[in-house]
Structures are given as C-alpha cells and as structure tokens.
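Researcher: Quick one. two chains, 750 residues in total.
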Amino acid sequence: MIPPRRSRTIRIRDLAVGGEAPIAVQSMAATPTRDIEATVRQVELLEAAGADLVRIAVDSEADVEALAIVRGRTRALLSVDLQENYRLAATVAPLVDKIRYNPGHLHHHEKSKPVREKVAMIVGAAREHGLALRIGVNAGSVAPEYKDRFGAEGVEAIVRSALDHCAMVDELGFTDYVVSIKDSDPRLVVDANVAFAEARPDVPLHLGVTEAGMPPDGVIKTRIAFEQLLSRGIGDTLRVSLTVPFDDKGQEIEVGRAILADVEAGRFRSVPPNFFDGLNIIACPSCSRVENTRFIDLAQEVKEVTAYAEDHDFTIAVMGCRVNGPGETDDADLGLWCGPNHVNLKRGEESVGTYTYDEILPKLREELDRLIAKS
Amino acid sequence: MIPPRRSRTIRIRDLAVGGEAPIAVQSMAATPTRDIEATVRQVELLEAAGADLVRIAVDSEADVEALAIVRGRTRALLSVDLQENYRLAATVAPLVDKIRYNPGHLHHHEKSKPVREKVAMIVGAAREHGLALRIGVNAGSVAPEYKDRFGAEGVEAIVRSALDHCAMVDELGFTDYVVSIKDSDPRLVVDANVAFAEARPDVPLHLGVTEAGMPPDGVIKTRIAFEQLLSRGIGDTLRVSLTVPFDDKGQEIEVGRAILADVEAGRFRSVPPNFFDGLNIIACPSCSRVENTRFIDLAQEVKEVTAYAEDHDFTIAVMGCRVNGPGETDDADLGLWCGPNHVNLKRGEESVGTYTYDEILPKLREELDRLIAKS
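Model:
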C-alpha cells in the first residue's frame, strides 16, 4: 500500500536507501558516547531490535576517541551526529558510515566563514571516506536568517533551508545524501515533508517527529506523521524519537517497524489531524429499505461533486430510505433522502424540493454554493 | 488489553453477549427483504465473513413472509429490525432470535397508547419466543419529547431515552436485552456510551457509529469510537456501518474484527479526537549529550505534576542537553533544559532561573499557575 517512491537510491555502505530499497529504520544511542561499554551495549541493543543504522552524537575530541573504540567493537552501520561541531567532520569520517549535519548550527563557529565553505568541508570529508550525508533540518534550530526571511510560523523556513543545502551539496557534485525536516508537531512534519518532496522528489527523505516525548503520546504523534507521509510515497528511512530510558530504546525501532508494517499492509489507522474540520458527508450503510440501488453510487457521486467545498464546515447527509431519511437529515446542513424514482433535497429541516436521480447533483451544488456564499 | 467488562451476560440463542463472553460482531442485510434469493445470499456472505448475528429489516407483512422463507434457508442467528413497525413484533418473533426496536419510533402509530404499553407488547413477544431484545436509540430519530426536554445538542436526550427504556424493560422483569446509542459523530458516540455505561454498567452495549459513510472515512470514524470505548471496557457487540454495495458488505464484519483484534492486542491507534487540544508536553528522546540521567524521570514527573493543567493550550518543552536545549525551548510557553546539576527554566525565550533537580518541579508549577491566571 506504499506507493512507488520517486527518490533516487543512495548507499550507506551496503545499505541502500531510497527508490525501491526497503524503508530503513534507524535510531540513536542515548548513552554518553565516552562511556564506551554503555555505548557498545546500546548499539547492540538497537541492532538486536532491528536497527539498520545507529547514530551516535560526537561533540568533542574525547567523544571521537571513544567512537574509535566503539567502531572497533561493532559491525553496525554508524552515523555520526554533528550538531555545532561540524568541524569534527574530517576527524570522524574514517570511523563512520554517514555524517549528519544540522544546517541551523553552522553559524555558531567561524562566523565569518561562508556556510558554503563549511558545507564543502563536510562534503569533502564524506567523499574522501565514501560516506553518506544527512542534511538534518530541525524547526527548533533553524538558521536565524531563514527565520528572519521566512518567518517562524509554518514550514517555509525549514523547507527553504533544506532546499538551499541540497543545492549547495548538488553543486559540489555529491549525491549520496538524504534530507530530514523535523518538528515536534506532526502536522508540521507532514506539511514540511510534503512541500519538500514536491520540490525535490529525487532526494531520499529521513522521517522523524523530533521531541515526540513519552509513550503513548510520542507514539501517536509519530504515527500521525509517518502514516500521512508513507501513504503518499514519502519517506525512505525512519527514526522514531521517544523519551524512554537507555534500556528501552529498542522500542523506537519496534514502533518504527510496526508503523511501517501497518502502512505497507494498508492498515492506515491514525486519524488525519484535521479529520473533523471541513466538509462532513454522512451516509447510511443502506439496508433492505433502500428503494433504489442507485443510492450507493449517489453517495459516492455526492462526495465527488462536493469535493470543491472540502474546506467548509458543512454536513451533507445522504440517506437511502423513507423510514430514516426524513428524520436523520434534519441535523445536516444539506440532506438527501432517496425514494424509488426521486431524491428529496433538504436544507436543515426545510424541504428544498424533489428531483430525479439525474437532476439531483446539480441542484445539490446550487444549494451548496448558496451556503458557501452566505458563510 | 480490553479491561474486564462489567456488563451481565445475556443469551441470543446459543450466542452469549456481555460479561466475559467474546465481543460479538454483527451486521445487517442490505438487500430488499422481499428479494429472498438476494437476502439469503447476503446472509451467507455476512456469515462467511464471520458475522455472529445478522439483522434483517422488516417493515411490512410481505417482508414477514419473505423472512419466514429466509429463516428456513439459513442457520444464522437473525435479528429483526423494527423501526416504525414495532406492531409486527408478535408476527416476526417466531422467526428470529432477537428484536431491535427504536424508542424514537414508538410514537408514530397509535399515538394515544402509552409508550410503556408498546414496550410491554414487544417484550411480551420476545419473552414468549425466548428472544433477546435491543433497545436501539439513534440520535437522528430520538423521540421528540426527549429532544424537547433535554435539547438536541449533546448526548443527554439519547442517553436519557435509553435509560428510561431500560427501566421500563426492567420493570417487566425482562433481562435479555442490550442497548445501543448511535450517532454519526464518533465523538458523540463515545460520550453517550460512556455516560450510559456509568449509569448502567450492567447492561450489555451494542456499539455503532451510524451513517459513518463510505470508506475510508467511515472506517476512521468507526475506529475512533470503538477504540475509545473498547479500551475503556465498554462494548459487548459491534456493528460497523459502511456505505458499500451489497456484495461488499462482508467488509463491515472484517473491519469490526480488525478493530477488535487491534484493541485486544493493545494496538490502540486512532488519535483521540481532542489530541491536539490542551497541554502539550514535548520532550527530547535523550542522547549521549544528556548530562544527568535524571532527565528521563524529570520528563515523566513534569507530565505528572502538570496534569492538572491538561485543558490549557500550553506547550511545555523538556530538553536534556545544552546543545539543543536553549534553542529548542524558545517556542514553548515553558521550557526546561537540563544541565549536570541544574535545570534551566524558561518562559518562551526568556530565562526564569536555574534550579536544582529538587527545586525545579515546584518552580515549574508556580510558572504554570501564573500562565493559567493570565490566560
């Protein structure tokens, strides 16, 4: 049930991501990197849970030294997370399979150096060691100039930041990269990733709801975003973020795999965030009282011809019979109840008229247009 | 994951419903009852899909005659749906296993006869033939006097109507009944059934979202209501209503069974309708940058001590480190970011102060109270 993805396939060593490759599930070690024993155990725990890739944060030379030892003790694919410390890129590159940098953190050091040069430095390190990159944009740390230019509300700043960094990396002739655009609000994660994927369908996307928080809310938030995106063919690798102790981090992988399996099987279950907004079409399930079997088609046609009004908070009721039809359309803004040859059209409790099955849809649109004009 | 249900167990012939009995899944024939071949095929189709019970509408003597023939050709448990034609109760009772009547339709005929007498007539027919009953209240056809007394908004009219009918049936010494309270809005279905179950935990409940409409919206609406109710231990039998052609009616049973299996397995997936309202706690997933492992407990404690404010639309961010903490708390109404020994408390972008892990929670409550007082 996941539509074909339009992204290109990139490689993180032997792991293919994007295009027709299976959607990879990853997570991040929560242990202090310098605690080598704990970090090795954490990597093993995530691998055992089914992680395709494990990210490790590196913020200092001491972290790099620890990472070198961890690297020697695991065969897991490792990604290094460089936030403010992108200058460590060259040092960590020989130790890992992928580098994540945050475009919003490149201004913190060497302020006079152009961002483009900093990106070139990271790309150079990745290229030299055959690594993949992630351009990891986060709404909570978007570069100040993007906030100034595009505003702090909405998703434009984060999407533009990601697009500009793609252009920079493209210009350097580097293609083995993925992009992530994260927010703690799943609705913004959906909007941002949809907008990005429209502009750059070729770039593989790493999905995540950042700071989703504790289960169960954190799981629900993640599920909302991932279901909406995966079912549109958007998303090539996933990371679930849950506020849980070290020893429970396997849950992030399990939740990611469960969501993936559900969407693949068409078990698309979370409620779209704006489900109760906009046009609401209620329709009876039909029973033996239906006097014209065109009723089922009519319900579908009503949905189609009224789709243009989907943002208006009206209810349209389509009922199949004279037993329940007259009463159960009273509460709707517009109601249709079907007889053997005619359909009765109502506006609230008031009758508008009786029309043939061929006449009813244009009449319904007229009434709907009138409601919209008045609203 | 379904909590023990408090309802009593009733019997519909050999089918136990309520208490510890498995939750039964049922549906309704959509074919014209008088089309005997089509109706027999419809019953067989629903049975094959796993229906525990099949409902058939009967509105006329001709329908009764057809039902008699259908009865002879199937061993399925049959319920008869009497809407306005409750006077057929005695005639159909020998042919079926259960009668559904609608309290909102009893005023249509013999207006001078008290409702109590009409109920006694239906109960008498059920008792004589060893049938079960369903008191089936529907928001779209609630009895006018209940609408007048309790208003058309909210769920009081439908809940009171159901409770009064239970009292009437109880007084007649009849206990083999279930109740349903349906609306096309799943949020009202939840509210009504929660209110009813509080008042009458002993009465088995038949759950349904009426006129849910076409898939996928109809499935989503049903899932919202059923997940919310089943996970509270409310609901003893289910009917999914979808606007689909005759031949696809098996889908109603399949969807019902899938929701049931999911909730039983703890796969509680639909988003509670008000998920995005009220207090929003965002918390980072923790990573190696966390300098004090008390962070995870703190996130949990923040959730607990702020629970009293759950109806207020504030965001509280709890971040584990100095790299992401200062920036990613800016957009929250209140932010906490954790250092090795102290927690930094913020109000939006402004710093409130730095507190020990023991001091922070009371300080947070003070700030939250201040926000509430101002809101």
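Chain B touches chain A through 74 residues (CB under 8 Å).
Researcher: Thanks, that's what I needed.
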